[in-house]
Design a protein that fits this description.
The chain is of the alpha/beta class. The protein is built from twelve helices and 14 strands. The radius of gyration is 23 Å and the shape is globular.
Length: 405
Amino acid sequence: MKESTLVSLVVIGTLAYGGVGIWTDLSERSRQEAQAAQQQASVAPRCEVLGREELVPEAGALFGVNLDWVDKPLADYALRLGHKPAVSVSFTGFPYDERGHRYLRMAADQIRADGQMMLLTLEPEGGLQTVTEETAQELAADLAEINDSGVPVIVRFAHEMNGSWYAWGQQPVAYVKTYRRVAEAVHERAPGSAMMWAPNYGGGYPFAGGAHEAEPGTEDFAILDTDHDGELTMADDSYAPYYPGDEYVDWVGMSLYHWGDAHPWGENEVPEEGKFLAQLTGTYDGAGGDDTAVPDFYAEYGRDRGKPVSIPETGALYASAVAEGAGELEIKQAWWDQVFDSSIPRDFPQLKMINWFEWDKHEVEIDGEVDWTTTNDPAVRAAFTAALPGWLRYAPETSCTAPGT
């Protein structure tokens, strides 16, 4: 609630009690507040409506955040961070209902005031068959309205499609067809929106045992068996069968977390040196196993294809209820030191976005609470904000107003 609104409520309460002198003072203050707000609005810059090609920074990487929008508004996070994040991650089921429609508008309003662009993760929980041409066109129309209000959107459609745990997982035929359908609608109708393709990190592929793993004898299984040996193993390419094609993909992304050294997760362990970049490049061989069969995601989809690379989500596990192991600051600092390594702008110039997972939540993988945050604890926040490198890019510090207002 804005301060001017609060003043108005106080004025009404004073009038009810008949305090004439106080009413006069507060009325004058209310008028002054209103005039100041109008003056500020008149000089605030209009939000610039960017095209999808302009969302990629020329140098450095956009810094963003994945927040619990209800319990931790974007304005509060920006205040604690000391910067307005350039990217704000939002999740919604798709196709979405009227409630989801309102949620998108709420998120866009927060981003316009205290951020810059939205990374919208769409989850077709009812299966890929629910994403029709009609729903794709309706999405594109909504995105066009959000873009016109001054908020660019990057759509991360059906992420982690190479996993076996989502209703859209390990179905390369239907996935590629559906992704293309959505991309065509977005590219045609929402010029301020872009499409992101974001598989799960390939360590542990083919993720056997999930409810949606590909079945032998199916067309999907045959496509995923890239080495044609009749089995799905780590030797099969964990990314390529799901790639929709260069003309449909604007960004590529991969979420990389430090869950600990080895499965089962849940212990408070300091990340191994070099783990972050080793996983990004398919060269990890450490406490979590030998993942060198995993393709080099950065080289294949970033450098060679010329796509901007995103880390849509990242963070380091700290189980606050576990007394043993390393401390919170030690774990998290060791991870962000890798994510913010000074060599990244030079050696990985296609890495254009990094989003922190700022949640304290129950994780089913360990059946316990995990604090992924970097701004809740004062000591961790101080160390994190001091470590933010100069090559990160944030939203403008001055809020803008929607065009036409």
